[in-house]
Write a structure and sequence with these properties.
Layout: H1 3-16, H2 22-47, H3 52-76, H4 78-83, H5 85-106, H6 115-134, H7 139-161, H8 175-179, H9 188-191
Helix pairs in contact: 1-2, 1-3, 2-3, 2-6, 5-7, 6-7
Length: 192
């Protein structure tokens, strides 16, 4: 999990102090970060050490990684970002809103790990790779924006509808069961 902090710092250095093939290294580190995110969760669940505290810490490390990485890449490709600032601003506002609503309602950060959020993360990675390699993006950006808006709205709905804070909510369709105290079906790969 902590390796993603080091990967984020390395990405900053590669983008701000360019070396030969730095774009390829940035792409490699982003893919490696996503893989470590997936596999550290699977390993923690297999070892029986996955806890609420660990899931929240994992979410916070993920947020750090993505904020630093996205900020660095956006600086690197600032002309594209300026041209698409409205859509980026919408997603940023929705993302910040999820945290504000969670803090106001539960006095805690979010750690829903929803399935839609996972798909958005994959689309975000593809968009960022395209942006790093080409300094622009079209189809990956559109897909990322659509999934970003839908997944952030779902997380907002999950937070608003939940009666008490909980981690690992696969989708909005799980909330009613959670509120009744019933067990929900979770995907072992995504949110154990």
């Amino acid at each position: 999990m902590y390796s993603r902090i080091l990967f984020a710092i390395a990405i900053v250095l590669l983008l701000f102090f360019p070396v030969e093939n730095n774009n390829n290294w940035v792409v490699f580190l982003m893919i490696l970060a996503l893989l470590t995110d997936v596999f550290d969760g699977i390993i923690a669940r297999k070892l029986g050490v996955s806890s609420e505290r660990l899931r929240v810490l994992d979410s916070n490390v993920d947020q750090f990684f993505w904020l630093v990485t996205i900020g660095s890449i956006f600086y690197y490709a600032k002309d594209f970002i300026i041209s698409e600032i409205l859509w980026i601003g919408i997603i940023f506002t929705l993302e910040v809103s999820t945290y504000i609503v969670s803090y106001l309602k539960f006095k805690r950060t979010i750690a829903t790990h929803s399935i839609l959020a996972k798909f958005w993360t994959i689309s975000l990675l593809i968009f960022l790779i395209d942006l790093v390699l080409n300094q622009e993006s079209f189809i990956p950006f559109i897909v990322c924006v659509i999934l970003g808006i839908i997944s952030r709205l779902e997380i907002l709905l999950i937070i608003v509808k939940l009666k008490q804070w909980v981690t690992d909510v696969p989708s909005i369709f799980s909330v009613a069961k959670l509120n009744r105290g019933e067990a929900i079906k979770r995907n072992k790969l995504f949110n154990g």
